[in-house]
Amino acid sequence: xxxxxxxxxxxxxxxxxxxxxxxxxxxxxxxxxxxxxxxxxxxxxxxxxxxxxxxxxxxxxxxxxxxxxxxxxxxxxxxxxxxxxxxxxxxxxxxxxxxxxxxxxxxxxxxxxxxxxxxxxxxxxxxxxxxxxxxxxxxxxxxxxxxxxxxxxxxxxxxxxxxxxxxxxxxxxxxxxxxxxxxxxxxxxxxxxxxxxxxxxxxxxxxxxx
Length: 210
Known about the structure:
Keywords: Acetylation, Hydrolase. It is built from 11 helices and 5 strands, in the order E-H-H-H-H-H-H-E-H-E-H-H-E-H-E-H. The chain has helices spanning 18-28, 34-40, 47-52, 58-71, 78-81, 91-101, 129-132, 141-144, 151-161, 175-183, 194-205; strands at 4-7, 105-110, 137-140, 168-172, 187-190.
């Protein structure tokens, strides 16, 4: 029996920044996927991870990301990547969230950036108040100094919602972030696009979501 549905934000309720990354790389003649490969290399302790845990400021992130990307084939400044993060809300996913909230508890676990990340909408301003109000609880990495896929962040959510992880559905667009949730017993959905995610969510919850 489902008790709660827990959501990632970027790439789930919004379009994926990966499309913007690809455009940026093509326009500048950079190696394909250089930004994603930089994000993925040493993903627990790289510039991105430290910034999402608010351990470094924007200038340190800018320089460290440049060093890490250069080691993989081309220098990309961290400050140039930040404006690429702001995806557009997916209205059909927001509608699904509204219907879920009417029946189940809802949570959001987001790896985000400090609210003062200049040049980015990756701080709190990205989150439309109407959407964030649909969650019973929100955990932001930059506020608590932990980020997915650290298992503790998922544990914090189920404890706050007072639910059994085996009775939860978790949606994320990154497989690495789904793994700890799945290991806790959650039903996981890897979001590729809205139609696919909503279909799997309907199957998991038994609700009509569109």
